[in-house]
Design brief:
The chain is an alpha/beta fold. The chain contains eight helices and six strands, in the order E-H-E-E-E-H-E-H-H-E-H-H-H-H. It has a single domain, classed as 3-Layer(aba) Sandwich (Pyruvate-ferredoxin Oxidoreductase, domain 3). A six-stranded mixed β-sheet has the order 2-3-1-4-5-6, with helices on both faces. Helix 1 crosses helix 7 and helix 6 crosses helix 8.
Length: 190
């Protein structure tokens, strides 16, 4: 099997590192060689965060280069557009519709771009946009956006529900497990 590439992006504090670990754990449970790379960026200050997941029979490097990702998963709409150059031609973007204003927008030096889904589709990308924030609220915590998005992402893999549940149990703290399981289910059915 050739190596496959996933890029997970968001804003600091959205839990992209936990999501990346969940994906990596599910891949290992399924018997793949998987490499995860955490690139923190300005994660502590609400800045852009990008993580890479590569999997296959044998993976030598965790880094995804421009134009290599089959899947780009974004927890915030502008971050999907910002990292679109990592997507392979004909690749798929799975994005949350939530908009978190970056500092230039907050201070009035710029405006949040409009029509981002349409602009991404114009590049040839296949784009699925969901309101993960509403689903996370329904699950019991706005902080579960990351797990809602991973639930949506799970539909792109032929893994059993048991694989995903085991991966959740392995990476999510026990006191938060039930909310995250519900968030995952809501994302999977979105």
């Amino acid at each position: 099997m050739e190596t496959k590439n996933i890029v997970i992006v968001g804003v600091g504090g959205q839990g992209s590192l936990l999501a990346c670990n969940l994906m990596g754990r599910a891949l290992l449970i399924e018997g793949y060689d998987a490499k995860v790379s955490e690139v923190h960026g300005m994660s502590q200050r609400g800045g852009s965060v990008v993580t890479y997941v590569r999997y296959g029979e044998k993976v030598n490097s965790p880094i995804v280069d421009k134009g290599q990702a089959e899947l780009l998963v974004s927890f915030e709409l502008l971050e999907a557009a910002r990292w679109l150059d990592l997507l392979a031609p004909g690749g798929t973007v799975v994005t949350n519709t939530q908009q978190i204003n970056p500092m230039p927008v907050i201070i009035g030096a710029a405006e949040y771009p409009s029509n981002l889904v349409e602009k991404m589709e114009e590049t040839g990308a296949i784009v699925y946009a969901i309101d993960a924030l509403s689903l996370a609220e329904k699950a019991g915590s706005t902080k579960a956006v990351n797990i809602v998005m991973m639930g949506k992402l799970s539909k792109y893999f032929p893994f059993s529900n048991e694989t995903w549940q085991k991966a959740l149990e392995d990476v999510v703290p026990p006191k938060l497990l039930e909310i995250n399981k519900k968030a995952f289910e809501l994302g999977a059915s979105a």
